[in-house]
Please model this.
Amino acid sequence: MRPGAVVEVDRNTPPTLFHYGEGFRLERLPLGSRIIYPPDPMDPIGHPERAIRRALTKPIEDDPLKDLLRPGMKLTIAFDDLSLPLPPMASPDVRQLVIEEVVDMAAHAGIEDIQLIAAIGLHRKMTADEIRHIVGDRVFTAFWPDRLYNHDAEDPADNVQIGKTSNGEEVWLNRRALESDLVVYVNLTLVPMDGGQKSMSTGLGCYRSIKEHHTVHTLLNSNSYMHPPDSALHHSCIRQGQIIEDAVRVFHIETSLNNHAFPAIANFLQKRETDWTTSDQAAFYALKQATDLAPPDLKRTMFHSMLAPYGMTSVQAGQVDKVHDKTLEAVRSQMLVPVEGQTDVVTMGIPYLGPYNPNSILNPVLVVCLGLGYLFNLYKNKPVVREGGVVIMSHPTRYEFHSVHHPSYIDFYDEVLADTTDSAEIEKRYEKRFAEDPWYRQMYQQSYAYHGVHPFYAWYWAAHALAYLGDVIVVGGERSTVHRLGFKAATTLEDAFEMAEQTVGRYPSVSHLRTPPLLLAEVE
Amino acid sequence: MAGPAWYSGSVGLSALVRSLGGALDDYRKLRRGFHWDTPRPAEWPEASNAVPDRPTTLGWARMEPVRSLRWALQKGMLMPFTEVMAHPKVEGEEWVQELHRPVILASNHTSHADTPLLLYALGDRVRERTVVAAAADYFYSRRVIGFLTSLWLNTFPFARTGGPQEVLNRSSQLLKSGWNLLVFPEGTRSDTGALQEFRPGVGHLATENRVDVIPMHVRGAHRIMPKGRNVPLPAQATVRIGKPLKVGEGETSRSFAERVEKAVHELADGAESAQVTGSWIDRWQATAPRKTRR
Model:
């Protein structure tokens, strides 16, 4: 595997690819800028089924799964939802392979009472097709819909308070999971933020327990939440997870993937520009022209039908914390790129997809969440941009929302952001009303809407970046929308650099995050 | 960049010209930036493919837009042509109408016409989800032929001479991903049209992946295009589809392969035994969660 790299731009450097929503831009960065490239994908495990079987037979600090299963017991299998991985994985999804193996063992043990729960937390419910894609035909046909379903964080009968942490944080859990003799959690970890104790405490929790750590205060003290030891968010999740472990027997299974995020047709997105072959250049040109000309709906259909040929790089099972340590090792060895020092400006292309818009629209609030939340936080030690520096993002940032998936986002944008963009102020004045609104609750429970409070969390996700940065500039963004978000709009990258100089001074140092595929910058 | 596009009708010809200008601009950026006219700069790192081997062996033929293209080719050309050439009669199609899980379809093999006839018999929905195992040494020794066969019939290279584990892994991937697998357990076309001995691979595949096998039999394809002839001639053909066979508790792959062979023989003989007909209850049970062997 070729490691990640930091490449300095000179006169011969080819133009650099910027994601631009459902499209691309090819930009020339100033001479002397540096481009941070992710490592190439690790070689995947050749026979994942065998590796899974081995992990279940020889778990870490736990008994083999087979020994925990007995007839007459109540077994619950919970699994991560469609927010992972991005883009969705080409069949078979690793969760399918793991669940099939666990169900096989349960069938062999003669367990009648088995249920599978999609641990969606406050995310939208998945459709039948989306669940089928994750668990595969065989599991879906056997269990849907009575014994394979989405968790419902708003059903009072389905959620039980099981205690409080030493810091006074409430801990709630799905009733079926709590009443089970054994919960097998099937996780997929793409970035270090995922997995571990966070899986159950958020995936099977409800607003009252999730709000304990999804706060502005916690996120301002998570530097970064992509590095759990420095993340207040994760510390809180771990405290909640320990209460859960005391209340219910958990057997935790985690998998990690390489960063092979794009199918063959879009190989050029996977490669550094200097690696582009003639056919990569031709594919880029064809796709660029198609996305420049196609109507937004068609482009969205094209992009969201792309499935990633991810390969599994590790699987481990057993006690949650021990398992998670091993998983993080595997994830870091795929993502880490050593970077020397910070720069005044960081540029990044915002792609079409984030964790909260699979098969949906990346609305303006989610653009902020993805750029200043997820991509900004892809660091260890300290951010790539210096404090008071400027982030330049490229995205069309249209006033565009999915009315079924994101109803509360529309009101958040129209009502809350029209008033203030200050995270603390927003939390204080608006969060509770949205979180308890009966109409949003109804749409979360009966339709496919994200929870009423979800746009707040998406905004808080960027709280650290918003407090840290001197300015944010969006290249190619719709001017009125960008202004509503509290940022500046630029037509071209050159204009954006001119504007950035007003904040950070003449001749700024520049880094470009060439992601996705994802990377984790280890800044010295 | 962010303004309305020419097709929206609100800005007309000027936007179209701007779009074309953008295309020209992109072309120039590529030409200059990637040094089309000059040698590759020495300071560029050595080029790397950066794309690992596919973690799955599904292949390009199972991806969009190839799937849609093949659907159109088969629906618009292959199926009408098969209809005209063979007037196929299909018996037992109810066994493939309610498939909820991937299955292996095992048929006798006398002619290149078998595959279109079998695909015809499966119907649109199942055909769209069926991959055909094609002899790697025959169809894939030349890239163009391999490409066209994969595009046209959704085949994948099935190594008749490779190690059984490799063949199993590739086929298992496809089954796990929800594709039905059409195989010819005899391994090659029959010279005479008579059934040959089945190889045990079909049993290995079924027991390893715990999937059902649907026996099928084609009668008459031998007359349409026998081994050694390259041009098809019109002749009547019949495709018979049998009841799905399940791997029994403790059954070995070899004995299961023998059972599949027997079922195909019964279809060839036209036997109407319970073994190949069954009742709706059998069909119902065939889709129930499987008790697996460990």
